[in-house]
């Protein structure tokens, strides 16, 4: 079965890069957004942008779930982690996201029982191993991750586990894209659509982008050839003056998504009226919370959560980076006050955040260009 | 895995990377809806299979955060060039 190696073939990459070169019109500037943090990471890791003509610009989108978590939400998590007897579990990168008074890692150093997990199932296992403790899972992620949380909560219910609850910070991909498209300070020509989010939701939810805004969308895989091919497909549409949703990642993305995943999400979650995104502000119907049927497993209802809103640090320009208005290196604290070791903004925390990806893979190449 | 490393040290974060790890099914527990799977590097993980059932030993799955989100050997996968 072909899945990875064939999509890193350098010779084929040069062929597709040549096709891209033949599709662009000299004098026209193309601004394409890769929605997903995984794409951002691959683009920098494999130097995909080095294969593109100078007039094809890639803009990094809001698709990194760690990067869009606001400080107040981190503070809420730290407050829960500080409750006597609680074991607080989350994915690794969330540990380092700064809240207003430190990160979950700082809370752990101060004595809170904070543990990194690789899946909600791991968190459930901890709950079963510690029946006298309350275990809270800090659920983050887009629709790729939400079914995993939902299935674990159904398992909690089925197995009668009573010491497990979830602080749900799952978000949905379509509302922030619509917000970006409505933004007057950003002009985009097309979108590289998220790969594994689309494995769950399908390609159909993105049809509003060509229908309402006349922009092409190509759902793409994460290997360098996937991304190059998606860029060629977008440029082909632009050259023909058309706009549609196309699926480059057909090997795992069905056009209508995974029906069972959508059903389990609809059963366990409901849309929040509003959810705050770092740098993007409050976006209607963009976040998930547990449905009333699962209210007893909702950590925010089981425990007192402060729910205080905290403004982002003034020096940090993550919001503009997330909207693609500025490039990471154009932020005034990039690489100086804000580094992966001591991040100020969330985009520098996750390895898939635009700033960290650029810091780790792109910085020296840029310095070479300057020289 | 429930170890204590402070960060995702692999240069890749499960959620942010929209991660999908190809894994091979070693054993299926149909009653509990779980499968023991192994990555290409040999790392083993218990995986939720509710979204892709039925699966059998030897089949390959795309796994995200402990849940199989797609089968890699089905008709869709064959579209790959």
Topology:
The complex is a heterodimer of chains A (371) and B (81).
Chain A: H1 10-23, E1 30-36, H2 37-46, E2 56-63, H3 71-81, E3 86-90, H4 104-109, E4 113-116, H5 120-129, E5 134-141, H6 146-159, E6 164-170, H7 174-182, E7 190-193, H8 195-201, H9 208-213, E8 217-219, H10 224-240, E9 245-247, H11 259-268, E10 269-271, E11 274-277, E12 281-284, E13 288-290, H12 299-302, H13 318-322, H14 354-361, H15 363-370
Parallel strand pairs in A: 1-2, 1-7, 3-4, 3-5, 5-6, 7-8, 8-9
Antiparallel strand pairs in A: 10-13, 11-12
Helix pairs in contact in A: 1-10, 2-14, 6-11
Chain B: E1 21-29, E2 34-39, E3 44-48, E4 60-64, E5 67-71
Antiparallel strand pairs in B: 1-2, 1-4, 2-3, 4-5
**Total helical elements of chain B:** 0
> Cα distance, first to last residue of chain A?
45 Å
State the low-pLDDT regions of chain B, or none: 1-12, 75-81
Q: If strands are numbered along the chain, what order do they take across the biggest sheet of chain A?
A: 2-1-7-8-9
Q: Please, how many helices of chain A?
A: 15
Percent of residues in helices of chain A: 25-40%
> In percent, how helical is the residue content of chain B?
under 10%
Oligomer: heterodimer
Can I get a quick summary?
The complex is a heterodimer of chains A (371) and B (81). In chain A, 37% of the residues lie in helices and 17% in strands.
Textual characterization of the structure:
The complex is a heterodimer of chains A (371) and B (81). Chain A is of the alpha/beta class. Chain A folds into two domains: 5-22 and 29-65 and 184-247, HypD, alpha/beta domain 1 (Rossmann fold); 71-173 and 257-302, HypD, alpha/beta domain 2 (Rossmann fold, 3-Layer(aba) Sandwich), CATH 3.40.50.11740. Chain A is 37% helix and 17% strand. In chain A, strands 2-1-7-8-9 form a five-stranded parallel beta sheet. In chain A, helix 2 packs parallel to helix 14. The longest helix of chain A has 17 residues, at 224-240. With 81 residues, chain B is mainly β. Chain B has a domain at 21-74: Roll (SH3 type barrels). Chain B has strands at 21-29, 34-39, 44-48, 60-64, 67-71. Chain B has a five-stranded antiparallel beta sheet, with no helix packed on it. In chain B, a hairpin with a 4-residue loop joins strand 1 and strand 2. Chain B is globular and about 30 Å long.
């Amino acid at each position: 079965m072909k899945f990875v190696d064939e999509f890193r073939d350098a010779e084929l990459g040069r062929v597709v890069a040549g096709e891209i070169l033949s599709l662009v019109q000299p004098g026209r500037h193309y601004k394409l957004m890769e929605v997903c943090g995984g794409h951002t990471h691959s683009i920098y890791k494999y130097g995909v942008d080095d294969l593109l003509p100078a007039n094809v610009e890639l803009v990094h989108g809001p698709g990194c779930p760690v990067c869009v978590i606001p400080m107040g939400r981190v503070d809420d998590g730290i407050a829960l982690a500080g409750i006597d007897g609680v074991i607080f579990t989350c994915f690794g990168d969330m540990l380092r996201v700064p809240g207003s008074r430190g990160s979950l890692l700082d809370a752990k150093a101060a004595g809170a029982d904070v543990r990194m997990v690789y899946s909600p199932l791991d968190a459930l296992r901890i709950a079963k191993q510690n029946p006298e403790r309350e275990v809270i899972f800090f659920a983050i992620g887009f629709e790729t991750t939400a079914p995993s949380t939902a299935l674990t909560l159904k398992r909690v219910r089925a197995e009668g586990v009573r010491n497990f609850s979830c602080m749900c910070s799952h978000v949905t991909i379509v509302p922030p894209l619509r917000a970006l498209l409505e933004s007057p300070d950003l002009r985009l020509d097309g979108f590289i659509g998220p790969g594994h989010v689309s494995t769950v939701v399908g390609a159909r939810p993105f049809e509003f982008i060509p229908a309402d805004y006349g922009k092409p969308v190509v759902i793409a895989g994460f290997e360098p050839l996937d991304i190059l091919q998606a860029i060629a497909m977008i440029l082909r549409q632009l050259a023909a003056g058309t706009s549609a949703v196309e699926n480059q990642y057909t090997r795992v993305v069905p056009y209508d998504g995974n029906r069972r995943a959508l059903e389990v999400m609809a059963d366990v979650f409901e849309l929040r009226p509003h959810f705050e995104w770092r740098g993007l502000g409050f976006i209607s119907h963009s976040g998930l919370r547990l449905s009333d049927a699962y209210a007893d497993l909702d950590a925010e209802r089981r425990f007192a959560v402060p729910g205080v809103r905290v403004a982002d640090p003034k020096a940090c320009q993550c919001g503009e980076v997330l909207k693609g208005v500025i490039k990471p290196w154009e932020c005034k604290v990039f690489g100086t006050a804000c580094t992966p070791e001591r991040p100020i903004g969330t985009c520098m925390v996750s390895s898939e955040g635009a700033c960290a990806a650029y810091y780790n893979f792109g910085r020296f190449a840029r310095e070479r260009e300057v020289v | 895995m429930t170890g204590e490393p402070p960060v995702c040290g692999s240069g890749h974060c499960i959620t942010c990377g929209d991660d999908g790890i190809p894994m091979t099914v070693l054993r299926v527990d149909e009653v509990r809806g779980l499968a023991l799977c192994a990555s290409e590097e040999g790392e083993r993980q218990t995986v939720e299979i509710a979204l892709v059932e039925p699966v059998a030993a030897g089949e390959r799955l795309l796994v995200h955060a402990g849940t199989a989100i797609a089968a890699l050997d089905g008709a869709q996968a064959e579209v790959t060039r």
